[in-house]
Amino acid sequence: MVIPPYPYTKPMPPPQLTRQLGSVLRYSSRTSDGGSTPCAVPSAGERLVYKLVRTSRLYEQIVQQIEESIVKGDLKPGDQLPAERDLAQRFGVSRTAVREAVKALREKGLVEAYSGRGTFITDGTTQAVRQSLDLMVKIGQPEGSKHLAEVRAILEPEIAALAAVRIQEPELATMREAVSVMDRAGQDPEAYIEADLDFHLALAEGAANPLILSLLDSIVGLLREQRLRIFRVPGGPERGQVHHKRILEAVERHDAEKARETMRAHLSQVSEDSQAPAAKRAPGKQNVH
Which of 3, 87, 116, 164 could in theory staple to 52 by disulfide, Cβ–Cβ 3.0 to 4.6 A? Predict the structure, then answer.
């Protein structure tokens, strides 16, 4: 999908890359007659194609794309970023937005700017960015998904067991409403995701332990990203709902062992769907848990 360019810059066709013999890459720009004019590109930063970004929080989106390039190994320590003007054209933004992005990257220790030489990826950058679980989950890195699954497996079955013993009617009412919303929102992933999060957070509130709620709340953003990434797996919402209803039933009956067991089954299903090959993901289907 082509993202509209920043309104304060002249729209330009995005640069395209074509791979030539082995690892040699050439940069090509479209000409008015539909052809292209190739020219050699010296650095990894020059070779990368960036998406045009939307007008809100522009510099943060630029930062995220460059971070993703680092995590994926497209940018390595010592690689030089394109010049400010070139980056502005590639992203379809103003040079001010690029300057803000570079400043943010410098503050994170990811790049260093040298007067008269340019901006370079710093040593140790790859390790630093790979430690960002949030970014790993956002771009689908296996390590990030695995770490998140392990945290959920440690926390949520015991949360369910505690909630079965301690939960009060207000939290139960929230869980029931969340299940009802998910039943009605099968084709609306955003509504389903928010209701799903409400369900799990209400369960955590039902455990009546502020520290548990704080721990779970700290990974809500990761949980949302996980759901967004796997929403296309066929049958995901239906499988998730079966488990949600079983968990709710166990908690309503104040059966701690059953609540723990059903939550484990739910997380196992989430993990299985998360690992489903992309080829098996059907357009128009949502998988959110």
Answer: 3
